[in-house]
């Protein structure tokens, strides 16, 4: 689920997500870890039903527009997807928390292909890092880093971010994603 | 999926659920069009001890407030963590070039979340603000195709680069593009600017040049200084101008400020504030002249020797009797002496105040009048410059230490080292006054010399393609935004608009192709100050371009390649090669100029002069040998060249008070009783920094209104007010304050136009109220000439 979230929060869809979602939601009752995740799944199910009635291309357009308005611009975004916007006083990119995230990635030999051009504390990148650490769960260093990273980073901004995302989104898809993301990060934080 | 192991912390997430999400993911990857899905890469060097080291990289803030200030980027591991400013020794001959709050906030601008990140193409209606991300290659291919299409269909005169940029530099988008378009075959040229075009014409027709200014150190030699609509405490107007005023004040000069607003300059420097109704400057000038004449405070010998047309005895041969300035002031032809009593109801200044000012000004020597640009951004903006030169001539204050030429002007450029520039030649001979570019869109082929067209009788074609390069004068800073927006939205008029920008400004919303620009911290460049500055600044690249932004030289080179002009455009040089070439150029004339490496490393070169520069000293001291660069060789208070223009009412031969349309005497005051001016706000440089939260916190966007006008409208301090005239409506908070004279309101210029669904601007962008009617002579922008009405917006 982390990878799924990282994907949909990183890039707008080129075509509609609807058929995949439809299939998923039709086949499988959700088994949510917490109420937030359940609400997210509910919103996504609503979305899938609604989207079913629209042409896929139009659907993809709607999602793309919503994605840009939320995360990309041009112009002010309703849910800027970078941690430092929420956590540093100036509300800009590349704040002290970004540098801390960068250092955490580097401790594990991870980084961006073109360092310095994009902040490392994009929600999708933080989710990827969380997955990376989770996959190395047997390594006590990774487990400690995972706990620290959740506490000092993801959990420190996920609520205000998901609030903006939920209220700023014009589609049920991204509204659902807001709840799902919050539920996911909360669930992850429960795992020792 | 979260993990490859089962976990049930909330008790419920099962392996099967998570696997199913994984299936959606593979679908997602397939539909995402091949975009990079995984951001993080392994193989990055592990954290090292050196990561904590901070490098200090010299750069500069070179926005066009007139200041150019040192900024130093503290860079840690490729990221700017702090900005400081000049910390070299601060001495009287080489004061520090310290940045103001705008420059110091620069990190919040560079790293603003709203920076444009990728090239985009318009997908909705033009101006609607709907865009879609595209690749640089697609963007540049489209631009190249459009350039070729417009060249074939309409010719080069249909291509236009609007004036103004918030991304200035030797290698700015504008400079790169002018070079490329020149090589491509040319573009419609432009002259004038929105800052001081009327003043330039006023000074050219009076003393033959716009280089009328003395150096600022000379202010300390003045004993009496009139700052005429001059507000450097807020506008900066060249780094350290306030410092030189402070030195003058410490040396004992009395300072009087004439301004409808009690500006920060009044707060900081004034012994006396004289509020004047906007557009009535020449009524006050006339009344001062009247007192000088009637109380025998005129330096007649100076005028006899150096001026044309002050009195009847010094008019050119064959001029009708009564044409002199003196006759006009004394009312010898029109029966109206221009006395302080005559001026009082026009200007709003009590006659006794005018008389006292004139007596003091006439008696204390030397006296300087320093004019700002505001007084000439008016309906008849050419007149104050001509009038103030006349006053300084009448009192013999021109060409002397501690005096001034009266009008605002540059110091002689000969004083500064000439830096080289990116070579550019425009084969198209046609040019227009910048303020009339929207006319050239709508009725270009009707425009002739009467509209200021130069280089031919009539424009061959309307503007069809616009390259708007990091400027906001396409819309926001041009007059009458609502009218301009309609013009630009019409795709049958301008067929293609490119905008290169750092943010989605109101102008950028009208792009067909939108390109993400770098800031100075993301490229190497050189900043040169206005002519008063005795230094040059090097802007070192401190960080990589953000997101997909490209520096101008990089993307214009790629565009040149698509036009088959790459080799001609680059001449095989990199951006740094060109900067090196410019420095070598300066070194030829200035042997002291440092090497390229030395200049780059220090980030600044400050040079010193043996003595202050006094404009027109030679012409005044040795008039037989040195002439003013006018046709007569004298100060042309009476200008035969203006007579030839045959519009005596609006372009008189001598400086006159002309009642302005939308001035305080316009019958339109019945409907719109308040004058509304703009001012240059300390929190913005034009429209730059409007989106920086620190600046809004320091100085919010608000209208100023006198308590008398507010009470009459039931308006209280802090209310939301609606400000409107026939051209537009805005809503913004009001500051009710005696710091502005009754009958006058002021909205600081440069706020970003933010129309709601009814077209009402919710931000307070002055230009929804301003007019596109140009001044008669310069065809300049009259953007402080507006009548409005104000109402309380919200019920309390």
Characteristic key phrases:
heterodimer; A: 192 residues; mainly alpha; 9 helices; 69% helix; B: 796 residues; six-stranded mixed β-sheet; six-stranded mixed barrel; 27 strands; 15% strand
What can you see in these coordinates?
The complex is a heterodimer of chains A (192) and B (796). Chain A is mostly helical. Chain A is built from 9 helices and 1 strand. Chain B is an alpha/beta fold. Chain B has a 6-stranded mixed beta sheet. Chain B has a 6-stranded mixed β-barrel with strand order 22-26-23-25-24-27. In chain B, helix 10 (281-294) runs parallel beside helix 15. The longest helix of chain B is centred in the first third of the chain and has 18 residues, at 136-153. The two termini of chain B are 54 Å apart. At the A-B interface, helix 1, helix 2, helix 4, helix 6 and strand 1 of A face helix 1, strand 1, strand 4 and strand 6 of B. Strand 1 (110-111) of chain A pairs antiparallel with strand 1 of chain B, so a sheet runs across the interface.
Walk me through the topology.
The complex is a heterodimer of chains A (about 190) and B (about 800).
Chain A: H1 2-10, H2 18-27, H3 35-52, H4 56-72, H5 83-87, H6 96-107, E1 110-111, H7 123-135, H8 140-168, H9 172-190
Helix pairs in contact in A: 1-7, 2-3, 3-9, 7-8, 8-9
Chain B: H1 15-31, E1 41-42, E2 54-61, E3 69-76, E4 79-85, H2 101-104, H3 106-110, E5 120-122, E6 131-133, H4 136-153, E7 159-160, H5 173-184, E8 189-191, H6 197-207, E9 224-228, H7 232-235, H8 241-250, E10 254-258, H9 264-269, E11 272-274, H10 281-294, H11 300-306, E12 307-308, H12 325-330, H13 340-347, H14 351-363, E13 367-371, H15 382-394, E14 431-433, H16 437-443, E15 465-469, H17 481-489, E16 496-501, E17 513-516, E18 525-527, E19 535-539, H18 552-562, H19 566-570, H20 575-589, H21 596-602, E20 604-606, H22 617-621, E21 635-636, H23 640-643, E22 674-679, H24 693-698, E23 703-705, H25 707-712, E24 720-724, E25 729-736, E26 744-748, E27 787-792
Parallel strand pairs in B: 7-15, 8-14, 9-10, 9-13, 10-11, 12-21, 15-16, 16-17, 22-26, 23-25
Antiparallel strand pairs in B: 2-3, 3-4, 5-6, 5-17, 18-19, 19-20, 22-27, 23-26, 24-25, 24-27
Helix pairs in contact in B: 4-18, 5-18, 6-15, 10-13, 10-14, 10-15, 13-14
């Amino acid at each position: 689920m982390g990878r799924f979230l990282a994907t949909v929060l990183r890039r707008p869809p080129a075509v509609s997500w609807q058929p995949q979602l439809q299939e998923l939601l039709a086949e499988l009752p959700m088994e949510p870890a917490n109420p937030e995740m359940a609400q997210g799944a509910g919103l996504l199910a609503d979305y899938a039903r609604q989207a079913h009635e629209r042409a896929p291309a139009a659907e993809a357009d709607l999602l793309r527009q919503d994605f840009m308005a939320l995360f990309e611009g041009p112009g002010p975004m309703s849910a800027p997807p970078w941690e430092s916007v929420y956590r540093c006083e100036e509300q800009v990119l590349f704040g002290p928390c970004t540098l801390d995230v960068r250092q955490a990635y580097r401790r594990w030999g991870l980084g961006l292909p073109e360092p310095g051009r994009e902040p490392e504390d994009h929600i999708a990148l933080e989710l990827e890092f969380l997955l990376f650490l989770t996959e190395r769960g047997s390594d006590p260093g990774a487990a400690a880093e995972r706990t620290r990273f959740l506490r000092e980073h993801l959990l420190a901004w996920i609520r205000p971010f998901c609030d903006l995302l939920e209220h700023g989104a014009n589609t049920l898809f991204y509204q659902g994603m807001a709840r799902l993301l919050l539920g996911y990060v909360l669930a992850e934080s429960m795992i020792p | 999926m979260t993990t490859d192991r089962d976990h049930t912390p909330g008790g419920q997430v099962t392996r099967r659920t998570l696997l199913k999400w994984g299936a959606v993911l593979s679908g997602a990857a397939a539909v995402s069009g091949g975009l990079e899905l995984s951001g993080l890469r392994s193989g990055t060097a592990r954290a090292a001890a050196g990561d904590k080291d901070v490098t200090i990289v010299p750069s500069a803030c070179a926005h066009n407030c007139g200041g150019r200030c040192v900024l130093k980027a503290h860079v840690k591991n490729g990221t700017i963590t702090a900005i400081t400013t000049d910390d070299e020794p601060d001495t009287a001959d080489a004061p520090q070039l310290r940045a103001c709050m705008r420059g110091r906030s620069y990190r919040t601008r560079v790293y603003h979340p709203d920076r444009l990140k990728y090239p985009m193409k318009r997908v909705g209606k033009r101006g609607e603000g709907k865009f879609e991300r595209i690749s640089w290659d697609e963007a540049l291919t489209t631009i190249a195709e459009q350039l070729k299409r417009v060249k074939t269909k309409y010719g080069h005169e249909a291509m236009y680069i609007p004036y103004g940029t918030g991304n200035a530099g030797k290698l700015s988008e504008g400079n790169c593009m002018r070079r490329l378009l020149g090589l491509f075959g040319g573009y419609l040229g432009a002259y004038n600017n929105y800052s001081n075009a009327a003043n330039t014409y006023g000074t050219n027709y009076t003393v033959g040049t716009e280089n009328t200014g003395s150096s600022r150190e000379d202010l300390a030699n003045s004993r009496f200084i009139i700052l005429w609509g001059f507000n450097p405490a807020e506008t900066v107007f060249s780094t350290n101008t306030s410092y030189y005023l402070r030195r003058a004040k410490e040396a004992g000069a009395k300072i009087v400020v004439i301004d409808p607003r009690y500006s920060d300059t009044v707060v900081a420097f004034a012994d006396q504030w004289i509020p004047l109704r906007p557009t009535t400057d020449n009524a006050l000038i006339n009344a001062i002249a009247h007192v000088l004449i009637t109380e025998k405070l005129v330096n007649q010998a100076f005028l006899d020797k150096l001026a044309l047309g002050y009195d009847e005895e010094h008019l050119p041969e064959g001029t009708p009797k009564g044409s002199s300035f003196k006759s006009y002031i004394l009312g010898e032809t029109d029966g109206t002496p221009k006395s302080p009593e005559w001026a009082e109801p026009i200007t709003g200044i009590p006659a006794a105040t005018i008389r006292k000012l004139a007596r003091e000004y006439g008696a204390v020597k030397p006296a300087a009048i320093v004019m700002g640009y505001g007084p000439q951004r008016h309906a008849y903006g050419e007149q104050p410059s001509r009038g103030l030169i006349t006053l300084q001539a009448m009192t013999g204050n021109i060409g002397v230490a501690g005096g001034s030429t009266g009008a605002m002007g540059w110091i002689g450029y000969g004083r500064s080292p000439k830096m080289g520039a990116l070579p550019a030649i425009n084969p198209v001979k046609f040019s227009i006054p910048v303020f009339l570019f929207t006319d050239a869109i709508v009725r270009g082929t009707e425009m002739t010399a009467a509209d200021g067209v130069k280089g031919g009788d009539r424009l061959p074609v309307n503007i069809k393609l616009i390259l708007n390069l990091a400027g906001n004068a396409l819309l926001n800073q041009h007059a009458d935004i609502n009218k301009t927006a309609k013009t630009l939205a019409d795709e049958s008029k301008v067929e293609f608009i490119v905008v290169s920008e750092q943010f989605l400004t109101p102008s950028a919303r009208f792009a067909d192709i939108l390109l993400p620009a770098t800031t100075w911290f993301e490229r190497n460049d050189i900043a040169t100050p206005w002519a008063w500055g005795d230094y040059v600044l090097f802007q070192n690249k401190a960080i990589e371009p953000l997101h997909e932004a490209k520096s101008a030289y990089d993307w214009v080179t790629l565009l040149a390649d698509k036009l088959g002009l790459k080799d001609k455009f680059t001449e095989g040089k990199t951006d740094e090669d060109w900067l090196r070439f410019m420095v070598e150029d300066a070194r030829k004339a200035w042997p002291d100029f440092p090497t390229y490496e030395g200049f780059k490393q220090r980030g600044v070169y400050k040079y010193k002069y043996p003595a202050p520069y006094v404009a027109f000293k030679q012409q005044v001291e040795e008039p037989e040998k040195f002439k003013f660069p006018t046709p007569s060789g004298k100060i042309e208070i009476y200008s035969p060249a203006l007579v030839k223009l045959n519009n005596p009412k609006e372009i008189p031969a001598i400086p006159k008070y002309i009642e302005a349309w939308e001035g305080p005497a316009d019958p339109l005051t019945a409907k719109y009783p308040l004058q509304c001016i703009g001012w240059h706000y300390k929190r913005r440089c034009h429209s730059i920094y409007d989106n920086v939260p620190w600046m809004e916190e320091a100085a919010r966007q608000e209208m100023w209104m006198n308590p008398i006008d507010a009470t009459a409208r039931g308006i209280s301090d802090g209310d939301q007010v609606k400000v409107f005239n026939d051209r537009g409506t805005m809503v913004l908070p009001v500051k009710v304050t005696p710091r502005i004279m009754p009958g006058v309101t002021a909205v600081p210029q440069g706020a970003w136009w933010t129309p709601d669904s009814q077209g009402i601007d919710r931000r307070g962008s002055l230009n929804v109220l301003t007019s596109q009617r140009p001044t008669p002579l310069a065809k300049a922008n009259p953007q402080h000439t507006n009548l409005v009405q104000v109402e309380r917006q919200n019920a309390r």
